[in-house]
UniProtKB/TrEMBL annotation:
Pfam families named among the record's database cross-references: TetR_C_14 (PF17754), TetR_N (PF00440)
GO molecular function terms attached to this record: DNA-binding transcription factor activity; transcription cis-regulatory region binding
HTH tetR-type domain segment(s): 6-66
Keyword Acetylation: no
PANTHER family reported for this sequence: HTH-TYPE TRANSCRIPTIONAL REGULATOR RUTR, MYCOFACTOCIN BIOSYNTHESIS TRANSCRIPTIONAL REGULATOR MFTR-RELATED
Originating species: Amycolatopsis dendrobii
Keywords for this protein: DNA-binding, Transcription, Transcription regulation
InterPro entries: DNA-bd_HTH_TetR-type_CS, Homeodomain-like_sf, HTH-type_TetR-like_transc_reg, HTH_TetR, MftR_C
Keyword Membrane: no
Protein name: TetR family transcriptional regulator
TM spans (from-to): none
Residue ranges: DNA binding: 29-48
Length: 187
């Protein structure tokens, strides 16, 4: 048997998601995850710091990716249209990388600990987007407001996309959420 299994990370993730769904996040252990995956705890530790990391691994890249997408947006665009373009750009990238998104979202919704971790992640993304919008010329207060609205659009689009990932692309969900918001703002 080879010492390195190229599928180990995905096997561990799949086992964890199954156990979280079956028994609840709080009741599943790393030992159970590794047993279900047919791997060792040492292998688990090679890929994940703890069982939360199964759900959040890679999320540390999201703030930079979102900020970079804002920076890459057409320089002629005002801040909010640039942010929407960035959400589409970054969203397409992350939508392609996130496997088991609906299952992950349901597990996070079931645990206050995971919800807090998700809020912390989104706060970091918001701060990075604020900085990128400031670099594009937005005032501090405008950048904060636009970033918060943009992240709300991103969350709404992501939620809707996870409910029907085969039915539509992520960019369409971002555009739909932004259009819906604009319709609510128009008297």
């Amino acid at each position: 048997m080879p010492r390195w299994d190229p599928e180990a990370k995905e096997r561990l993730r799949a086992a964890a998601l199954e156990l979280f769904a079956e028994h609840g996040y709080e009741n599943a252990t790393v030992t159970q995850i590794t047993e279900r995956a047919g791997l060792t705890r040492r292998t688990f530790s090679r890929y994940f710091a703890d069982k939360r990391d199964v759900l959040f691994a890679g999320s540390e890249r999201l703030p930079d990716a979102m900020a970079d997408a804002v920076r890459r947006a057409d320089s002629a665009l005002p801040p909010f249209p640039a942010l929407l373009a960035a959400l589409v750009d970054a969203g397409d990238l992350f939508a392609g990388l996130v496997s088991h998104a609906a299952q992950r979202r349901a597990i996070i919704a079931s645990s206050p600990e995971l919800q807090e971790r998700e809020r912390t992640k989104l706060a970091a993304v918001t701060a990075a987007v604020v900085e990128a919008l400031r670099e594009r010329g937005a005032t501090e207060s405008s950048a904060k407001m636009l970033a918060q609205v943009g992240i709300a659009i991103f969350q709404t689009a992501f939620e809707r996309w996870t409910e029907q990932p085969e039915g539509t692309d992520f960019a369409a969900q971002v555009r739909e959420a932004a259009t819906e918001l604009a319709a609510h703002l128009t008297p």
